[in-house]
Amino acid sequence: MALIKKGSVFTLVGLYVLTIPFFNAMNVTSYDNSQILGHFGASTTAFTYSTYIPFFAMIGFLPLGMKIGKQIPMRTMILSVSFLSIICNTASLFTNTIEWFTVWRSLLAILSIIGIFATIIPILLKYNPTFNMPILYGIVQFILQGSKQLYQYFGTQMTSVHNWTFGIYFLNVNFLLAIVLAWIFYRKDVAPMKSPFQFDWRGWGIMLLFFMVILFLCAEGQTRNWFSDPKVSMAAAFLLLIIGIYLIHVRFTKEPLINTDVFKYKNVVLGSLLFFYTGMMNGTGSVVTGFMTNILGFDSIYVARTHLAILIGLFIAIPLSTYLLFKRIYLATLWVTGFACYGMYHMILYFRFYPEIDASDFFGPFIFKGLAIGFLYPAASLYISEKVPKPLGDSRMMSGVISRAVFASLLGGAILGTFISNMNVQHKTGLSQQLSEVNTEAKQQLDKSKKVFMLNGLSAWEAQKKAEKSLSNETSKSAMMLAYKDIYLVMSALCFFPILILLLFKLGRRPIGSVEVEPIPF
Predict the structure, then answer these.
(1) Number of structural domains, the chain?
(2) Start-to-end Cα distance in the chain
(3) Transmembrane ranges (predicted)?
């Protein structure tokens, strides 16, 4: 396949820029959920499903997207996917129900997966560097993680111009740019990785069923109070049954979707665990966002702008970790540094949960978060791929994606929400018990609020009720902040724990080995 001048930096940059809109199809409206919910007037449960379904559609379509991305000529593929993405993206603006909005968003998510593979394959073929795989993985992680923060910020800025629909238009402009870049950088319309189409349809069906059960647990586990509800218990049991059925399916399938033989490689098992762990540590970001919006009252632009501090850490850590991996530094060095940065991020924020905190106080911990991502993500992606033969490359990738995205980020995030709610109730009960005549500070604050309301013309009874409600609201905020502090204290301990294990058992004291699988570096 002929691109512009071979080895050209201009060509390489153009090819990578072409991947960015497909990586970020779901990120543009990240901070606009409240506007979308208000626009459709849907119930909280329906909106929760509409948030989860596109992501599960994206992950569920991943295996088939890889196959399709190899079969159709590259130029045709990118032009078609970009055009169809514009249609689906625009259609989501003109729906009247949350159900149809979810359908169009899910189709957009599926198209983005095909677009990712269609745009990344030429890079792998042109710059397939078995001698410098860390560079390839580092570049992709740099683009993936960095563009995520930028798209969330720019999408929020576009939304502030009018409403959430401007963020959708902004994404359409990006897909139009992808069409232009495809015309520039793809001279021949060929499918260089095309092979006889073989796909494990039965295994894919089992996997989709598995994801549907996880989707139910994510969307309704917390509202149903998890295992106290018989439907949740039944879903968990069904989940184990599905896993058993898939294990039987693997024994009678020549090329299964996820070949369990991949777990014979120790680095795949430990790498999947590392993917889960990093996904879990990164997933607490929703707690900070909730703190900013619900307690501090930051608007979405303020939240998005503050999160740009993560880019500083990424700009430092990813190039540095990529260079060190290329120079064959010990894996343990990067892992210890990454876990320490995650620990510092959680520990510093533990002391930041108090009222009237300024946005500048978040910059330090967010820089540490960016550093942690930069040191851990490229190393984890390389480690899980180490010495895995090419036929097991897709299985290796899916095990990592499911560990980080499905179990850690999506299901883990739902479980984290339950922990926060339970701790919030405990703290609120404890604080409410202190609101008595014996507590002089609470009584003085109540009397002061009552006098203010009476000066505003309310009767003594109305002023008393208003003052009690005001004090109760302050108690609720205090309880929530205590719950956040508990979560971040526990997470900081969990971040530093792997460092102890690595040092105590002298693990990872070697450089990265050979990575020769067909590299899908995420």
Answers:
(1) 2
(2) 24
(3) 7-26, 46-64, 76-94, 106-125, 166-186, 201-219, 231-249, 269-296, 308-326, 332-354, 366-385, 405-425, 487-505
Residue 248 forms part of a structural domain: no
Q: Could you tell me if residue 110 is inside a domain?
A: yes
User: Do 169 and 269 have their domain in common?
Assistant: no
Distance from C-alpha of 220 to C-alpha of 214, rounded to nearest angstrom: 10
In whole angstroms, what is the distance from residue 146 CA to residue 154 CA?
13
In a domain, residue 302? The reply is yes
291 and 183 in one domain?
Answer: no
Shared domain for 398 and 494, answered yes or no, is yes
Q: What are phi and psi of 25, to 5 degrees?
A: -60, -30
Do 128 and 270 fall within a single domain?
no
> Who contacts 515 (Cβ-Cβ below 8 Å, separation ≥6)?
130, 133, 382, 385, 386, 387
Of the residues 171, 195, 219, the one at which a domain ends = 195
Write the single-letter amino acid at 348: I
Return the residue matching tokens 């067909």: 518
How far apart (Å, rounded) are the C-alpha atoms in residues 170 and 515?
A: 38
With a cut of 90, say whether residue 152 has pLDDT above it: no
Task: Confirm whether pTM is higher than 0.85.
Answer: yes
Q: What is the pLDDT of residues 373-397, one digit of tens each?
A: 999 999 999 999 898 988 888 899 8
Tell which of 162, 177, 195 closes a domain. Answer: 195
Residue 196, pLDDT above cutoff 90 = no
Question: What are 352's two structure tokens?
Answer: 């930041």
Range 218-221, long-range pairs (CB < 8 A, 24+ positions): 218/52, 218/410, 218/411, 218/413, 218/414, 219/45, 219/48, 219/49, 219/52, 219/414, 220/45, 220/48, 221/414, 221/415, 221/418
Reduced to 3 states, what is the DSSP secondary structure of residue 395?
A: helix
State how far the Cα of 509 lies from the Cα of 333, in Å rounded to an integer: 8
Whole-number pLDDT of residue 344: 96
Quick: pLDDT tens for 440-465: 565 566 566 666 656 666 666 666 66
Residue 111 sits in a domain whose CATH number is 1.20.1250.20
> Coil, strand or helix: which one is 5?
coil
> What dihedral angle (degrees, nearest 10) is formed by the CA atoms of 234, 235, 241, 246?
170
Q: How far apart are CA 326 and CA 129, in angstroms?
A: 12
Residue whose entry in the numeric block shows the structure tokens 């205090």: 478
In a shared domain, residues 190 and 290: no
